[in-house]
Structures are given as structure tokens and as C-alpha cells.
User: Fold these one by one.
Assistant:
Number 1:
Amino acid sequence: TNDAEDWTAGGGGGNVLCERGFDGNLTGLASYMGSLLMFKRSSSYRFPPTATISELNLQPISKTVGAVTHQGIQEVSSGSRSYLSVFSERGIEGLYPTGSSGGFDFYNLSRWIQPVLNRRNTAQMARAFTFWNQDRKELYVFYPTGSNANPTEGVIGNFGRERKPPRWTRTDFQNITAGTIFNDSNTNYYQYVGDTSGRVYRMNVLTSDQRIGAAFTSRLYSKVYTQRRPNWMKDYGWTFVSAENSNKPVSVKQVVMRKGLPAYTSNANDMTVDYDSAWGSGKWGEALWGGAGNTGDRIRPSNVARGSGIRVLIESQGWYRVSGIIIASALCSDSIAA
């Protein structure tokens, strides 16, 4: 029938059973790659394309992975690939079409941030939700924590790198209960969220990240550099940072790993670099050492220089792209001590 409102048997309607008596009720539905996908909390199924309801053939996708909420299912993309993002009991899953069998397979996308997601309140996951910004290639995930019923914490996954895992960061938005993306003239993507007090916020204004007039701070935390000697103490010298131009000041901090000093503020050495006087526009490898001209800057420890490792924290309220980081160090001893 061509009448989408006619669900009678004469109009071609009917009903089917989806593993009745197993894994509770349905928690989500999605139409993807020509198949109707059905989710329970710990299992998932699909109906392949068919002409009539009598030809429907229920096929299981997984008997261990499902969706905790219908609001946690989004179609996302990374480069030229598209797939479904599903908020499951174990975290954020990617549901990929398989080229060989014409079916689907799950891949965990959030195992790198599993300790963060483990704080979620599993009894209230029906109130969790996600939404996708196609322009930014970012997935926003909100969920309740502790004994809270409403979402109190969130993470953001950036899927901009093709065939590589998403890069995750945390958001400190509190009590956000719903979110959506509004596409203006097929060019501008605006993110809107609402909270438990009934207020609605637009999270971004084109390329300017703002909320209630206050700019967001973008933060990049590098890996911990141990100079391939994690069990040795090192004496750290300058850190050379090179990046493309930014339209806002950029703060660079050296975070030295020291036994007995877990808080990074105890070991952070801060230098604010203004975009028009110290950050370069050249490619990495072409910048002059020492921060000559507008190519980069050397940052020397001003507080603590001795530790077992070091990482770099870069923050700004504007955009920036780090071209490279070089760290100078000298080995001290094979006994780690503050």
C-alpha cells in the first residue's frame, strides 16, 4: 500500500514478533542501509528489505549488544564512511555494514574513555541521549551519573579522522535533558540543548563557540612523553611548540610527572602566546628553532623541571592547529623520587 497511515491487514499491515520473552522490550528502532534495525537493551536485530510484511525475515545482529535508549542512536560519518552510533550498555558502539555478508557488525568506539563512562547511572539510561553535528563531525553524548535521574555529564567524540578512532573530550554541561542540530540554509549547523530548568541554549555561533555569551575553551592534552625510559628521572629543559595561526591567545602548560605531586597545577608552567607575535603559519620542519619570527616558541620550566615524564596542555578560546612538539631532556637516575 502507498498509505503510510493504513496499518490494517487489508492495507498490507500486520505484526511480527521480535524474540518475544527474551531481553525485555524494544528500546530503539532505526532505518539504515535498506534494513529496519530493532534494538533491545542487550540485543539487536534487523529486517532486510522485503516487498510485503509476510516476507519479513528477522535476523539477529548481536545477542549481547543493544541500545539503552532510542535517543542514543545516530547516523555518523568518518571521512567517506558512514555507520550508526549506538549507546549500548558497555558504551558507544559503531554499527558497521559488512561487505561480505550484507549484514552488520559492532565495534566499540569508547573503550579509550571507559573509566569516564563507568560513572553513568545504568538504572536511568533511558534518559541519556546523543546528537550528531555533521558539519563538525562531532558526536555529543549526555548521560546521568551517580544517583541522578537526569544527564549530569557528557563527552564529545570528534570523528574527523578517516579510518581512525574518534578523539574524545569531556563537557561540563549540567542537567542537559535534550539536544538537536538545526541546519540553516544547508550551510550552517547550530547546536541547541535544553536543561531541567526549561532553558534552551545555542551552543555555537558558526565558528565561535559560545554559551550565554561566554566562550568555550578548547583543550588539547598531549600524550605523556617519557623519552622511552618511563622508570627514569629526567631533567626537562625547554619545550618547543609550533602551530598555525590562531585568532585568540593560546596558553601552553608543561605538566611534569612527579611522584607525590599528582595535581597538574603543582607542575604546570604557563606561557600565554599571542597569535600575531609568536605562532607560525609554516609547515612543521620549516619553522626556525627558538621561536624566531612567527614560527613558534620555546617554553622553559619556571617551577619544576625534574620528573619521570612530561605532557603538554594547550588551551585557547579560538581555533588552532599544532604542527609539532619537541621536548629537551636529560636522563638523571633510574630511581624515581620527588
Note: The first helix runs from residue 114 to 117.
Number 2:
Amino acid sequence: RRHSGVGAAQGGHAPKDRDPLRPSVQLTRKGILVVTRIETAHPYAKYNDNVKQLYALESECATAGVPMHFYNLHWREQSRGAISDETLVAYQEDIAGYDVAGIIHLVDGNCDKARVSRIFTKTALPVVVVGDLHGAFPEVLSDETQSGHLATAHLVGSGHEKIGFIAYETSNAWMRQRIAGYHAALKEYGLEGNAWVVKVPYPEHARSTSEFEEILRPDVHAILPDAMKRCSAVLCASDVIGKLILDYERDQAVGADRRLAFVTFDDRILFRGYDMSAVSHTPEMEARTAYQLLVRRIMNPDAAGGKTRVPGTLFVRQSSRRQRIEGGLLK
């Protein structure tokens, strides 16, 4: 079955004196459908960003008195990221059968995005996506360029001039955007001549965080001696690289005069005990933004779509407070 959104039933516009985020009668009666892919049996499932987003949406809906329905794409196929033609049709039929006011899809990073976007083609309901789904629907995305700029500006503000970036060798847009923000900040402060980006292979097929870390370890440790000579501070593509820097310093008994100041990204709970400064996009903020965007689209189906970017937040901890003085200069 196909179901039209609330906005269509109301002529596509909310009354002028109405709070645009106040749920309509139809929204509070029908609710929304949240679709994602979560491996609930995975030992680290509770740390998954999609799980955090799901809880945040549940809280938003409960506060607003809006029913929330959940559909897990994982239950039909257990293989990593796979969606067969047969399963695709079944997903389309299942989702088109929900009598809800709108849909939020939380993108799983391992999914086949082209196929996943086709899941929603059999419904006329408003759809908002959290993550990158190639622009098929309105998207809520992390502002990774702003994050790279923010992390670099923080290190410059702490007195560093020779700032490097230990990045991943990957085609993922978020990595390119973080590097672009890094270069933009250095240029803004007149330090573009000091730019130094070194890339390590991205272990995208690792089956766990610990395996991801062990695959990265030799590559990261191999470039650290050069990084310590060239730079006084670095940006780390993720908190895993930050932890590997700390492991190297411990194993090699690196003195305080050679230690790197650094800022990581992600700020996952698993790594917060290491006192690493980080720029983080909280999944909860992305989910709340998606909810607000969906409510607006339900009330006004003609509202502009496109991409809504959520800025990162800097958490300053000990790793970026490090300073080493050599020859009277902060290097």
C-alpha cells in the first residue's frame, strides 16, 4: 500500500501561527518509521552510531508524543552489507505497507547505497536520511570540513605551527573533507607551507575494532619517527590512530621533548579513557536534526531538500595540551 504524508492531506502548508516543529494530529496518530541495519548480536552493538541515533529518535518521539516504529534491514540477510534482488523487493513491500507519516533512514556505512536507496521507491512518504545516500533523499551529514578546520585551529591556537595530518588512504568523502578543512585552516593562519599529510591504508574489511587497530598498528608506528621530526602536533584520522600514538610512546619510551600533541576524530566511548582531545559529531545530534527536518517536510512537502550539515564539537583533553620546547621555539 502507498500512503501520502500529512502535508499532502493538509494542503502542503502549516498554519502561520503554528510551531513548525509541533507534531500534527496525523503525525501523533500514525508516527514515523525508522529504518536501519543493526547487527543486534554483535558484541559492540551498543557502541554503534546507528544504535545511538535510534535511542535519540526514540527519546524525541516520546517527548513529542509521536509513535516510533522500527524496521531492521539486517533480519533478512546476515551477510555483510548484502541486499539481493529478491530481498530488495521484500523490503520495498514491507516498508510501503507501513501506515506512518514519514520515514527516517539511518545509513549503515557497510551498505550498498545504490540498492538501499531503491528500498524507498515504492512509498510516497517523506524520507529523510542520516548519512550519505548519494543525494537520493534529503540528508543529514556531519560537517567534516568544519571539523578538520576546528581541530587544526585549536592546535594553532595552542602555539603549534608545524602540524601534520595522519590520514587514511581511502576514497571516502569524510576523509577528503577533513583534509580540506585542515588545509583551509593552515592557509588562514599563513601556515600552508608547513602542511604535511601522510596516509596509512584504511582497514575497511576489519571485523572488529581490535582487528582494525592491529591491522593499522605497523603502518602507524612506521611513520611516527618521521612525524616526530617534522611536526610538534598532528591530526589523527580517528581515535584508533591516537591510541596507537600513545602505545608507540609507551613501547619506545619516548621522552616528553619528542611527544606529539594531537587531536583525533570520532571520540568513541571505547577510547575516552586515553584522555585524547577529539572533534566529535554526536549521533544523537544528527538524529535530532533528522527528526526536526522530517517534521518540517511532513508539514510542508514542498520544502527544500538537499544536505543539512551538523557541525562537530571539540573536546579538549590532555593529548592536545602537550608542548615541547627546543631552541626556544615551539616546533
Note: The mean pLDDT is 85.
